Amino acid sequence: MQREKDKKKLKKGEILAGWIVIILIFVITVANIVLPDRDFSEKENRMLAQRPELSVTSLFDGRFMSHSESWLSDQFALRDLWISVRSRFQLLMGKNDSNGVYRGERGYLFQAPSEPDEEHLSANIEAINALAENTDLRIFMMVTPTAANILSEYLPAFAPVTDQNEYLTALKEKISSNIQYIDLYDTLKEHESDYIYYYTDHHWTTKGAYYAFLTAAPLLGIQNPEEISYARYAVTDSFAGTLASRSGFPLKKEDTIEIWVPEEDAAAAESSQEDGGTYQPSVRYVVDYVEEEKKSADLYDSEKLEGADKYAVFFGGNYPQIRITTTNDSGRGTLLIFKDSYANCFVPFLLPYYDEIVMIDPRYYYGDISELISTEKITNILFLYNADTFFEDTSLADVLAPQSAEQTGVQAEEQTGE
Amino acid sequence: MYGGPYEKGAMKKRGDGMKDGIKKIRDRIYAFTDIMKTDILFRYNFIKAVLIISLIVFVVFLLGGNTGSSRSAEEIAESVVPHLMQTQQSGTEEAPDGQEQETAGAAEGGQDGQTEEDAENGGDTGVFDGMGQATALDFKRIFGLNAEDYEGVEYFKPISQMDVEELLIVRLASDDQAEALEEAVEERVDSQKTSFDGYGAAQCALLEKAIVKTRGNFLFYCVSPDAEQYYQAFLDAM
Amino acid sequence: MVFSSIIFIFAFLPITLLLYYIAPEILKNPVLLIFSLIFYAWGEPVYVVLMIFSIIFNYVMGLDIQERLKIGKQTAKRSLIFTIVVDIGLLGFFKYYGFVSSNLNAVLPFSLPEIDVTLPVGISFYTFQTLSYVIDVYRGETKVQKNIIAFGTYVTMFPQLIAGPIVQYKDIDEQLRNRSLSGDQIGEGAVQFIRGLTKKVIFANTIGSVFSTLSAQSIDEMSVLSAWMICIAYTFQIYFDFGGYSDMALGLGKMLGFRFLPNFDYPYVSLSATEFWRRWHISLGTWFREYVYIPLGGSYVNPARHIRNMFVVWLCTGLWHGADWNFVFWGLYYGVILTVEKYFLLKYLEKTPRIVQHVYALLIVMIGWVFFSSPDLGTAGSLLGVMFGFGEHALADSTGLYYLTSNLLLIGVMILASGPILHRALDRFIVLFRYPKAAATVCYLAMFLLCIAFLVNETYNPFLYFRF
With 0-12 CB in 10 A as exposed, 13-18 as middle and 19+ as buried, what is C379? Predict the structure, then answer.
């Protein structure tokens, strides 16, 4: 008898639940209509879809429908809250990955290393080797292992991560002997318990870059890299990087970004502040954003610290071409760097040792490299990438190609067809 | 009762010819509706026929809706983005520096000075889109395909390297080129998305709304805040 | 439009329900019809015309057949055959032209023209519904529907339009004319909707993404564990996907005052393949039995004829699911197994312990899913090869282990949810609380909120039975 009564109560409970849900649906629908649309999501680091325009073609096409659905989804009330509920639930169920990001121990988030795109990788290597064959300039290559490789013991259990070292070794073997390869694995592995990679971002920290610099320096021809000691300034301790936004995982740790300034400059700056005067920095430089036609006296863009992507404090982010001219008389001439964003916190360490540094990001650069090399009187070339970006890159070969094509006399053919 | 001037035959005048015609049609219609009302089976058979014919028309229309156009890629591009097409002779006299700079600079690169020139020529060249006409070399570099393989290629690429606004209209030489070309375009969109992922939220948002459509012997690809309008203009121009 | 989407739950449904509830009785069908057309047109802005044609055509033919029956059976039969030819012709053209023509091209001396048509969503479902109507009118098993609005409502009703269950006209005739809407039924429907939504969004979508990630591996490098994970993942995905969707359909039906027949009855507790097909996609099995199997004579003929009947039904069942050889194979696979069971195996099977029967049934079903889910027979064969230890494959690798451990809890819950156990245990558990009413409310509310959380950031929301 009790069972019967219980079943009835259960049934009533279900019906009540059903009605509450129906009312909830109405409430949320009204909330969605009433609340204003947002432009940008800090948490996801992307623009949010706006109300779509209605047109006959987009209606028959189905595009209006799919845009409407994105709009509704993106502008859903309390969206960020729902996303974090989902991530927490999934973590609870034992799922330690989301969108290609693994959540490891100690609060580390890891970018799953990519499998190289063989076609593009071979094309890139070919172009790099061709460049090495056809020029007398000194060429260096530094492809950095990423956190998933060096800090592999913090990955979640059984995480199926591709062996990045296998590909790096293969790369070392395939590049021309004219190129000086800088292997960072040992150095970084040595310092693995240090804070050399960010917890929530796929970049290395300034400290990690510094250790790399110490290893690279002798190979670059820099005698005593340790002679300059650095003062470290934490410019933010609430950095939540790309991996945090891509994965949607609740934040366990926030990152600190440091800017390393030569000790003597730091001291000089402090004392000049007290005196109220100015000081002479050890290296005087100008940063020229060629494409954007603006110049800066600072390597750092502190405005970026107010946004989500705080790593962009280094040079303000990625630009097609950045030229740093100094008053140095180093004897090493001008360095040309083909890079991704890993270089941004590395380059300040190179600053005292070159007269001029030109940074090219092949993803956004469409100029003529050979012209650039002669105009800027380049003496050294450095390829500075992190392994993930390098193995996925599809732009290098194209950017380098005209250079190699010209050298082999295919130029005339290429120029026709306008 | 009968007879006299009101007799049918006697009243026949010349204008009655048309009246008779209309009357005949009206009679036919009445006869038809009568049958429809009384003979149920006839009614249904008639409706069946109408439905089947409509169906066939619909299916034919559906299948035929994908025909292309006999116009050239250049003509269609003229209708879609007239302000971006290189003007040949005219215009150079009016503003020698501006126009010449534009045509010269519209070739490979679109580098410094381009943006300023275009802004100055806002009045001459029309709306400043952020796109400039590109060359076959650009097409090859970006899509990995040869422009000579197609009957016509009109490609406008972003002027600034940090921009993603672009437009491509291709007239295919044969139908089997469609798949490879679409794939190349999709790859371009994907690699752009990767390049700007995490850095360029506005660019990524535009890329999400990219339009890639094949219509018969034409392919249309556009990333732009005005992509819908361009697509509509493209369809109208076909 | 899909039920498990933000646009459906938070735009379409509230508007439709509001207007439907406030509409007076006579306007309820028209409101439902209009919104169902909008629902369909949202996903198929062009093919909605085709469905409207189907409605008008079958409506007229129903009247026509009825009229002809008064004259004689022969003339009515001719009309019926005409209707069937047109209905199936349409289905056949849009769904099977590509498959048939590419296979014919391989043997014919000339090439059939390549026609590029996409499959209209739900055509397999609504075609079978209209066919059930005209055949039942011919057989005199139902009154003809003179009201085109009511008929249109039957065909397009959005709860069952896209993915079933296949509702036979005679089961719903009465409800079209006269249905009651009680607060209890609405609440019941909403709760069933939530159960279905949870199955689809939390279970099916999650394990489905495991399936596609693991399937992307190359067969050569796959471990045995990964291969089994793929099979297990799909087995769960398709059940919770389709079963969940049917739950939602039934729930929505209740909220509109309709009671449909259940489409799934815990199929994975079956002890034989025969039992499985009495619990899986019940409305399809019923349809084939009613309109193909029994007219052919069913099992009341000599064994040779009977086997032929089975063969026909299972060939059709396989083909209905998709225009490809692996579906044909899958259908015939069951045809053979069911025949063997009926004539031979079941007698022995029933004498073995339950657990043996259960394992047997599950193996048959899971192997069947491998064929169903593979793009072609070769891939299916390779995967089965890995699963059963052929070739050089590691027993387990990090990929397999990772996905197993990441989803262990989920798989555990899904196993429980595949049988009535979870539901009963849940009920028992809720009843333990002092206030079972409140506990039930909290439980279902939590499920609903969790589903919203999953849906808001939906990057992966496939529906397997969608393109049918």
Answer: middle
Q: Are residues C116 and C201 in the same domain?
A: no
Mean pLDDT score, A267-284: 79
Range of the domain at A329: 115-408
Residues A288, A152 share a domain: yes
Domain count, chain C: 2
For B72: left if phi > 0, alpha if psi spans -120 to 50, otherwise beta; the answer is beta
User: C124 with C147, same domain?
Assistant: yes
Q: Which has the closest alpha carbon to B112: B161, B165, B163, B157?
A: B161
Q: What is the spatial distance between Cα A69 and Cα A86, in angstroms, rounded to a whole number?
A: 20
Residue A187 · residue A215 · CB < 8 Å? yes
> Closest partner residue to C57 among B45, B51, B59, by Cβ?
B51
Q: Which residues contact A375 (CB under 8 A, 6 or more apart)?
A: none
pLDDT in tens, C56-98: 999 999 999 998 888 888 888 999 999 999 999 999 999 998 8
Angle between helical axes of B16-38 and B40-64 (0-180°, round to 10): 100
The DSSP H or E segment spanning A101 is strand A101-103
**Closest C-alpha among C68, C56, C101, C139 to residue C323:** C101
Selecting from A17, A79, A93 the residue whose C-beta is nearest the C-beta of C445 gives: A17
Nearest-angstrom CA–CA distance, C255 and C21: 10
Confirm if C400 and C236 have CB atoms less than 8 A apart: no
Chain C residue numbers touching B62 (CB-CB < 8 A): 46, 117
* Residue C339 CB neighbours (<10 A): 18
Contact residues of C toward B, CB < 8 A: 46, 49-50, 53, 56-57, 60-61, 63-64, 67-68, 82, 86, 90, 93, 115-117
pLDDT along chain C (468 residues), means of 10: 92 96 93 95 90 93 90 89 94 90 84 80 93 94 91 94 90 89 93 96 93 90 92 96 95 95 94 95 94 89 90 94 92 94 88 92 96 91 91 86 92 90 75 75 91 81 56
Q: Which residues of A touch C455 (CB under 8 A)?
A: 73
In angstroms, how far apart are the furthest CA atoms of chain B? Answer: 102
Query: Residue A180 — pLDDT band, cuts 50, 70, 90?
Result: very high
B80 and B55 within one domain: no
Q: In this structure, are residues B209 and A67 in contact, taking their beta carbons and an 8 Å threshold? A: yes
Same domain, C72 and C194: no
Full DSSP string of B210-230: -EEEEETTEEEEEESTTHHHH
CB C135 within 8 A of CB C128: no
Whether residue C259 sits in one domain with residue C142? no
Which residues in chain C have their CB less than 8 angstroms from residue A62's CB?
43, 45
What does the alpha-carbon distance between residue B45 and residue B32 come to, in Å, rounded to a whole number?
13
The answer for residues whose C-beta is within 8 angstroms of residue B84's C-beta and 6 or more apart is: B77, B125, B129, B131, B132, B133, B156, B167
Query: Which 3 state secondary structure label does DSSP give A229?
Result: coil
Indicate the pairing of strand A255-262 with strand A230-239.
Answer: antiparallel
Instruction: Name beta bridge partners: A289.
Output: A294, A322
Residues 142-181 of B with CB under 8 A from A: 147-148, 160-162
Instruction: Give catalytic status of residue C321 as yes or no.
Output: yes
Number of domains in chain A: 2
Check if A294 contacts B (Cβ < 8 Å). Answer: no
**Can you tell me which residue has the tokens 């960010």?**
A198
Last residue of a domain, one of C179, C208, C233: C179
Q: What is the ipTM of this complex?
A: 0.89
| Dihedrals phi, psi of C390, to nearest 5 degrees | -85, 145
CA A104 from centroid of its chain's CA atoms = 19
Is A414 a domain residue?
A: no
